[in-house]
Design brief:
5-stranded antiparallel beta sheet
């Protein structure tokens, strides 16, 4: 069979499981009303662009645990066949040998007819070649990121385990990197990273949660993509000027390089502008994209719990791409107080709770879509909103920023208490035209037929255009995905893209 050539718009396809040139949409929800021999630990539904069908993937929870299957959801071409594959994290999955709830990851290859479930492979810390061993609440698979670290043309997979103990230091955290090969991901050459290694900045401490969020992307100008790792609770008890840390490690032909890593803490980027902004818990989400078009990728970081000076107002930090790595002297801090950014910071907005980076406007520069799931719309609390920040030659800017919520005349539904519009977002290629398109979730949305307090959740598409995002009169809900086997609720907890993990709102 000849491998199909993808027809793409300005943005690169990111979840094209069937290889038709248009991205497919994989979404996590809570399983409800399942008719299965054992309780389900989560449901991922995959809606294809090429055929009117939906695949349902469910994890099993035979002995208890959390509903965590799909709490990380990424797409990447791990075998180089130009069909994207789907990686699903289940950070509370029980280990079959020692019965600890240590976590695992499932990888399902793509094909001309979509995902091949019968060819799924599984990794956990008991898999041959995977370092360490499964321990209670390691959270292996809580965060995932896909990208080509070693430059061989196949995507690799970084797996975060923020609950990993390093010696006696509980929840210090670790990251495992599996490399792509001709048959998919392999444990050959696997790398295990943690902060007590000489190559990794900082030191492993209890409760750092290193690996809480991950991203892979090209920061410098060689052919190897680079790895970004957040330690969300780094320095949480050490001062009043910020917390959290983000680390950049370079890619190389042999994988993650043992030299040249850099890091920046939340305290180091505190703006000295008298606004009272403090970057608490830097790194609830991270991403990479070239927002100024100079060939060097910026590292984009969310701090949804930042003080602006309102508690949990939220900010994002854009670290300028440079061959020397991250620097606190080369960063833009953007809040809803920044000139041009719509709205004003308020307590609980959680601006930066979700991030997606890619070229929406088709000008060759990456734009940044920011979710604010706690945003109040009028008197509606936690209704949620999204903000598109546009790239420019001078970097990320508030000029021309676009804000959308469910009270916008062209957006279906309406803003209601607890909708949490924007708590999960992705930039995908949905129409083969122009720049990337947005998929935005409202997992708290109740639709007709729902039981009160049990929201089905809704996902909305927005098409990219030179002016920004264009709402479409279209929604998919957990109710519309309902079958005789499962009713997905809180549909939209995660949407597959290049990276996944972080806070769940």
């Amino acid at each position: 069979m000849k491998t199909p050539t993808r027809s793409r718009g300005t943005g690169v396809g990111r979840s094209d499981f069937d290889g038709d040139g248009v991205d497919d949409i994989a979404v996590t929800g809570d399983p409800f009303n399942t008719r299965l021999p054992v309780p389900a630990s989560g449901v991922v539904s995959v809606r294809y662009s090429s055929a009117p069908k939906v695949d349902y993937l469910m994890g099993a929870m035979p002995g208890g645990g959390c509903v965590c299957f799909g709490m990380a959801l990424v797409a990447g071409d791990f075998n180089g066949d130009r069909f994207d594959d789907l990686a699903i994290g289940d950070p509370d999955e029980p280990d079959p040998k020692n019965k600890t709830y240590a976590g695992g990851v499932w990888v399902i290859p793509g094909s001309g007819v979509g995902l091949k479930v019968d060819s799924a492979i599984h990794f956990n810390q008991d898999s041959p070649g995977v370092p360490d061993s499964p321990e209670e609440l390691d959270r292996f698979g809580f965060s995932l990121a896909a990208g080509d670290i070693n430059g061989d043309g196949r995507d690799d997979l970084a797996i975060g385990a923020w609950g990993e103990s390093i010696g006696s230091k509980a929840e210090a955290g670790a990251v495992t990197v599996l490399f792509g090969g001709s048959t998919g991901l392999t444990t050959a050459g696997v790398q295990h990273l943690q902060q007590d290694q000489a190559a990794v900045p900082g030191a492993a401490e209890a409760d750092d949660r290193f690996g809480f969020a991950l991203a892979i992307g090209k920061v410098d100008n060689n052919r190897h993509q680079d790895l970004v790792i957040s330690a969300w609770l780094e320095n949480e008890r050490d001062g009043l000027s910020g917390s959290g840390m983000v680390t950049l490690m370079w890619g190389s032909p042999s994988g993650v390089s043992s030299t040249g890593a850099t890091s920046v803490t939340g305290a180091a980027i505190e703006p000295k502008d008298g606004t009272g902004t403090i970057a608490w818990y830097l790194g609830n989400v991270v991403a990479v994209g070239d927002v100024n078009g100079d060939g060097l990728g910026e590292v984009i970081v969310g701090a949804a719990a930042a003080q602006t000076p309102h508690i949990n107002g939220g900010l994002i930090a854009a670290f300028t791409g440079r061959s020397g790595g991250l620097s606190s002297s080369a960063v833009q801090v953007i809040t809803q107080r920044t000139a041009g950014v719509p709205d004003d910071p308020e307590a609980g907005d959680h601006f930066g709770g979700a991030l997606a980076v890619g070229d929406v406007t088709g000008d060759g520069r990456a734009d940044v879509l920011v979710g604010s799931p706690g945003e109040a719309i009028g008197s509606r609390v936690e209704a949620g909103s999204i903000t598109l920040l546009k790239g420019s030659a001078a970097g990320l800017t508030g000029v021309g920023a676009q804000a959308l919520d469910q009270n916008h005349s062209a957006v279906p539904d309406a803003s209601e208490n607890g909708d949490k519009f924007g708590s999960s977002i992705a930039l995908l290629n949905l129409d083969r035209a122009g720049g990337l398109d947005a998929v935005v979730a409202s997992p708290g949305e109740e639709v007709s037929g729902d039981l009160a307090g049990y929201p089905s959740g809704v996902v909305n598409p927005f098409y990219g255009a030179t002016s920004g995002l264009v709402p479409q009169n279209k929604t998919w809900s957990g109710q519309s995905e309902r079958t005789e086997i499962v009713w997905p609720q809180r549909y939209g907890l995660r949407i597959a893209g290049p990276q996944s993990g972080g806070l769940v709102f």
